[in-house]
Amino acid sequence: MTSSLLSALNRSLHATVRLCSVFQPKNVCKSHVIAGGRWSTGWSTGWSRRFTNMTDTRGSPAFGKCTKGVLMAAGVFGTVAVGVCGLQQAEMATRVKKVEEVVEGDVAERCRNLMAPPITDVRVLEQRKHEMRSRMEMLIMETQADFCRALEEVDGGRFRVDRWSRQEGGGGISCVLQDSKVFEKAGVNVSVVFGHLSEEAAKQMRSRGKELKGKDGKLPFVAMGVSSVIHPKNPHIPTVHFNYRYFEVEEADGSKQWWFGGGTDLTPVYINEDDGVLFHSVLRDACDKHNPQYYPNFKKWCDRYFYIRHRNETRGIGGIFFDDLDSPSQEEAFSFVKSCAKTVVPCYLPIVRKHLTDTFTQEEKDWQQIRRGRYVEFNLVYDRGVKFGLATPGSRIESIIMSLPLTARWEYMHEPAEGTKEAEMLKVLRSPKEWI
Description:
Elements: H1 2-23, E1 32-33, E2 39-40, H2 46-50, E3 54-56, H3 92-104, H4 107-110, H5 122-127, H6 132-155, E4 160-165, E5 170-178, E6 183-196, H7 199-207, E7 220-232, E8 239-250, E9 256-267, H8 273-288, H9 294-305, E10 307-308, E11 313-314, E12 318-325, H10 330-341, H11 349-354, H12 362-381, H13 384-391, H14 397-400, H15 421-430
Parallel strand pairs: 3-4
Antiparallel strand pairs: 1-2, 4-5, 5-6, 6-7, 7-8, 8-9, 9-12, 10-11
Organism: Tachysurus vachellii (Darkbarbel catfish)
Enzyme class: oxidoreductase
Pathway: Porphyrin-containing compound metabolism; protoporphyrin-IX biosynthesis; protoporphyrinogen-IX from coproporphyrinogen-III (O2 route): step 1/1
C-alpha cells in the first residue's frame, strides 16, 4: 500500500513539474504580431514558439494564469435530429476506456503540438482530464492541428490563426488559409462556449424533439466542436466538410442531457468513381469498428440532411452524418466520434494530392462556381449549425460564415447539356448512389 501511494505521489509531482515548466517561463511574455510573419512572444520556452501566426482578441497571451471556477467549454455547432444508434458489446466500454487512458496521455505534453493553446487553461484540463468536456476539447484541438498541418504541407502556405473570446463565456480558435496556392479558402475552426441558451436556440432544440426544462427560464449549456470547410481552386479537387461536436445542457433539477453529433461529407464538382470509393471506404472502416449499422444508417442520414429542397438535389456525394448520439454509453459514443475525427486526413488528402496537377478549362471553372452557389444556398437556408450559431448571443459571425467560398456564381436558368460531365454530376446529385 505504501509503495503504491509513493508511486502515485511521484507521478503527481512529475506532472506538476511538467506543468510548471510550461506555464512559468523565466522571461516575461510580451505578445506581438510580425507583419507577414508568425506570432511571436518574449517567452524563451520551446513550447511558446510553436504557437505562431496568432492574434488574441483580448490583447494578451493566450496562455496565462490558471483560471478558477467552472471549466470553459464548448463550441457552437449544429443541433439535433432523431438519433439512429446501434448497440455494441457490453465489455467494449471497459476495453475502450483502458486504451484511451493510455493513448490520451499527459495534457501538457499533447498541447505542444496544437495550432494554439486550448480555450480552457491547460492546468484545468489536466486536473479534469477524465471529464468528457476536457477529453472532447483536447480531441477537437488535436483534430484541428492535424488537419491544418496536412493542408499546409500540400499547399505550402500557412494558416492565419485567430483566437477570439465570447463575452457570455468561452471562445474559439479560427484557422484560415485564403487565396493560397492550392486552396482558395480553407477554414478549420474550434469553439468552446458555455452560458445560457437563448430562447430562440432553446426553441430550435425543442422543435427537434429535445425536452428541456430550465430553471427560471434559463438553460445552462456547454457546447464544443471542430468544424472545417475546404474550397480548393482546382475544380477537379472536391470540397470537403467535417464537423464533430459535443453538447451538454443542465436542466432545472440539476440533471444533464448530453449528446454528440457530426459527420464528414464530400462535394466534388465532377464525378470521379475512385475518389468516391476511397472517401466512403475510409468512413465505413471507422464506423465498422464500433457498429456495422453505423455506416449505412449515417450515410443515408447524410444524404437526407445535405439535401437542397428548393433545387431537388443533394449538396454533394455525401459521407456520414449523425446527431443526438447519446448511446450505448458516453464512453462508447466518444470513442466512435474519436474514430471519425481520425479519418479527416486519410479520407481527403490522398484525393487532393491525386489531382494537384490536373489541368482545367474556363468552362470547368465556371461550373465549379455554379456548384459553389448551391453550397452557399444550402448553408444559409438549411444548415442547422449556421442557424444555431446566428441565434446564439455572442457568436463570432466571421467563424460561422467561414464555411462560404471566396467566390461563387449564379446563372439564370442554367442547365448542363445532355451527355456532358456536368450533366453526369447533376444526375448523381439528384439520385444519390451507393459508392461501396
